[in-house]
Amino acid sequence: MIGHLRITRRRKALLVLVAVMITAVFLFPVYWMVITSFKEPGEIFAYPPTFFPKSFSLRGYVYQLRTSSQLPLEGYLLNSVIIGALTMVTTVICSGLSAYGLAKFQLRIGKFVFLGFLIAQMLPVVVFLAPLFILFRQIRLLDTYMAPVVFAAIHSVPFCVLILRPYFLAIPGHIEEAARLDGCSALGVFFRIVVPIALPGMAVVTAFSFIIGWGDLMGPLTFLRNEKLFPLTVTMFKAVSEYGVDWNMLMAFGVVLSTPILVVFLLLQKYIVFGLTDGALKG
Amino acid sequence: MTLRRKRHQSIGLERQQELAGYGFVLPGVLFLLAFVAYPMISNLAISLQDLKASTITSGAPFIGFDNYRKIVRTSLFQKAFLNTLFFTAVTLLGQFVIGFLLALFFAKPFPGCKFFRGLLLVCWVLPHLVRGTIWRWMFAGDGVFNYLLMKIGIIKAPILWLAQGNMAMITLITTQTWLGVPFIMLLLVAGLTTLPREIYEVARIDGARRSQQFLHVTLPLLKPTIISVLTVGVIYTYKVFELVYIMTGGGPSNSTELLATLAYKETFLQFSFGRGAAVSNILFAVLLLAGLGFTAITNREEAS
Fold first, then answer.
1. Nearest CB to B138: which of A18, A29, A216?
2. Does B42 reach chain A within 8 Å, measured CB to CB?
3. How large is the ipTM?
4. Which residue of A56, B6, B168, B298 sits 20 to 30 Å from the alpha carbon of B141, by its own alpha carbon?
């Protein structure tokens, strides 16, 4: 008996060890980005490369400030936050209401709407860029925050509908029925009963839509000409083409762009994993 | 009397419910119509016109399918088309095999298995721009990959990964595989953990070996999951654009040109909007047809 236990314990330790190794291999690029961003310029190209910086330097982060001619770095950061936040609001409202409508009401057009979201998810980015550019020019949305926001929402809304639907489907109908009999309106039922129950799903969708808006490059690159509206992704992209191989600075850009995402991800990890697998498999 | 009134009331309620349902999907439907359906139709219209920088103000003449006819004959289009298929097939194969092996491992119950599984997904949520730039740096001539490969002894001199055609394609495929594996693994783990345990007990009692269990129990039971995973994988791999745009831009000398990058270049560098729209429509049409064909086949199989 004791021998048996010992074997399983050793086996478990071995499994954990292998898991750590696999994770290390997969996360190595992220680690490499972080340590490159903190290295001295001379150490970046050192041979053999150092897997832990000998001396920490903030040069990469300081140089980032110099790439911007029009705005201080905070300005770009603020633009990224605004685009992320507006994408989040648009997505949460649109996908929340739609997913609920599709999950809990027998609609004659329900099948088509769902198919519409599925097709929207399949569409390649390049299908949208030129037509949206023309449309945005007509409705005077070019060079406003809303242009990249709408573009990001094209990706996030269908995705979030697929994630949210299973959460709403799992809510037993009699709960909503009871609230309705108590005189609650349909919207009241949604906001007071459904959203609180599906809170983990709502959290995932909120996080994801912010991340999509925050990290998007093609939207702002295509629809914004006014440098005062540029988010961090565009500034980093311009730095890539202008400064080429200043990896120290580019990786520092990468760290600034990744940090909020990593924080949100680690906080919501459990829900994100569940939301993704459930939505993708049952969707 | 009371019965009829009651029925009347319930019909009224049903009506109300249906209206409420339409109210809920309305914002989403409007969004789809304005920003998905309209651009698609508009793209179709553009692709039938001779719309260039020179004709954009004077009004572009309608030229039928000329854009399609002309672009399809260019060797660049044919190359981009084959590259797209090759990239999708090899990447998907890599993602699926590695993802499946990892899923078999991470489906085992051990302390922290859920934590590690989730942690792998970190790479998947980073912006395209960040991932693409990190990998460009790692694959640079003086980057860490060349060092590691030379250290192990696989190569003798550093390879200029992104400056040589075949190597650039390998770089892109490796990067995209790395990106997709964690997601595919997670979906497969979700499928694996829902398989009923009793079946394995029975198989073991019947004397089935591990490999037999895998072939005759796991794979058939997992078929629905595998189909979803492959579908999602094809879509995400086939329509890839940002990563290629950031890492190689289709170069060197068009060796990593995909339909997506070709469409972008025609539109935003050559300013021949008509041809660009034609390429992006072909890109989408192939995916849509493949999807429809695939659903038809799986539906028929399910029916029989």
1. A29
2. yes
3. 0.90
4. A56
CA distances from A93 to A82, A117, A208, B37, B187 (A): 17, 15, 14, 20, 27
Alpha-carbon distance B222 to nearest alpha carbon in chain A (angstroms) = 12
CA B252 to the chain's CA centroid: 24
The average confidence (pLDDT) of chain B is 88
Residues A231-281 pLDDT 10s: 999 989 988 877 667 888 899 999 999 999 999 888 888 888 877 776 656
Contact call for B110 and A236, based on CB within 8 A: no
Q: Which residue of A has its CA nearest to B267?
A: A130
Residue A4 has pLDDT above 60, yes or no: no
Count of alpha carbons within 13 angstroms of residue B136, beta-carbon side: 25
- HSE-up of A131 (CA within 13 Å, CB side)? 23
Min Cα distance B53 → chain A (Å) is 13
Strand, helix or coil at B62? strand
Sorted by sequence, the CB contacts under 8 Å of residue A219 that are 6+ apart come out as A147, A148, A149, A151, A152
pLDDT tens profile A23-41 = 999 999 999 999 999 988 7
Q: How many residues does chain B have?
A: 304
